[in-house]
Amino acid sequence: EKVSMPEWTCGCSLAIARETLEIDLRTTDVEVELWEVGGTQTYAAARPVFYEDFDAVMLVYDVSNMKSYHNLVVWLFELCTSLQLPSLRYWDASGGSGSVPPADLEGGGCDGRAKQQAILSGRCPVLFVANKADLRRRGDERRGAMPMRPVPPERISLLDRLLGGGEGASAAAASRRSSADVQLLERLSDLVQRGRHMEACSREDKPTFDIVLWRDFLRRASES
Q1: What span, in angstroms and rounded, lies between the C-alpha atoms of 167 and 158?
Q2: Terminal alpha carbon distance of the chain
Q3: What is the pLDDT of residues 137-151, one digit of tens each?
Q4: Burial of 161 (C-beta count, 10 Å sphere; 0-12/13-18/19+)
Q5: Of the ranges 9-23, 73-87, 95-109, 160-174, which one carries the lowest mean pLDDT score?
Q6: Residue 36's beta-bridge partner residues?
Q7: What's the CA gap between 67 and 47, in Å, rounded?
Q8: From CA 92, how far away is CA 112, in angstroms rounded?
Q9: Where are the alpha helices (DSSP H) in the chain?
Q10: How far apart are alpha carbons 33 and 191 in whole angstroms?
Q11: pLDDT at 180 over 70
Q12: What CA–CA distances, in Å, run from 40 to 11, 159, 173?
C-alpha cells in the first residue's frame, strides 16, 4: 500500500490545545498555543520571527535517524543565538579591544540573553520528544536510561555564514566559532543529554504518548 508523505511545515503552523492541569492544588483549564516551526532550509531565514515571547520549547526527533537527535543541539543553538540582536552579537563598539560593551544598534531592548539563560538554567522548560519509538532498534538505549551525549555540529550556523563569510570546509567553519559559541554548544549538548525525553508514536496500532510528562511540562511552562 502506498503511503502518502505528510505536507512539510511552511514557515510556521499554529495549533491550539486545551488541557486541565493541577496547579497549586487547584484544577485549572489552560489553553496552549503550539507553534510548529518548519525545519526546511528554505524557510531558515524566516524562523527567528517566531522565536519571541515563548514560554517553553518542545523539540521532536526521529529515533531511527541519529542525525535528527544530534541536530537537537543545532535547534537549541539557533534558538539561543537568534534571540540576540545582530548588533549585540557581531558589532564590536570598541573596534576589537573589547573595552566597550556591544552596542544595541536596533534599539529593540531584546531579552535574548535572558531567554538563553532561562533555557540553560531550566526556568524555561524544554521537552525532547523521541518520535517513532516503535522503530527503535533492539539493543539501543534502554527505556529510561540517560541518552547519549549529542555531538555538536562542525558547520557554523546560517546567521554566521550570512554575516561571517562563505561555506568553506568544516574545519575552517569550526575555527571561525567564537569561544562563547563553543562553550554554548557544549552546554546545550549537556542539556540534551540530561533533559527530559518522552517517547511517542503515532501509529494507529501502537500509539504512544506520555500524557503525565506532557501535562507536567505544561504545568512548568505555566509557572515559568
Answers
A1: 10
A2: 46
A3: 654 555 555 678 888
A4: middle
A5: 160-174
A6: 13
A7: 20
A8: 18
A9: 66-82, 86-90, 112-121, 158-164, 170-175, 179-194, 211-223
A10: 24
A11: yes
A12: 9, 15, 21
> One-letter amino acid identity for 90?
Y
The DSSP code for 4 is P
Residue 99 binned pLDDT confidence (cut-offs 50, 70, 90): low
Nearest-angstrom CA–CA distance, 161 and 98:
23
- The one-letter amino acid at 185: L
Look up residue 98 and give its three cell numbers: 573589547
Q: CB count, 10 Å around CB of 212? A: 9
Q: Could you tell me the three cell numbers for 109?
A: 531592548
Give the pLDDT band (50/70/90) at residue 136: confident
Looking at 54-68, 87-101, 108-122, 132-146, which range is the least confident one? 87-101
Q: What's the CA gap between 203 and 159, in Å, rounded?
A: 37
Give the C-alpha distances (Å, rounded to integers) separating 207 from 30, 59, 144, 158: 24, 19, 18, 36
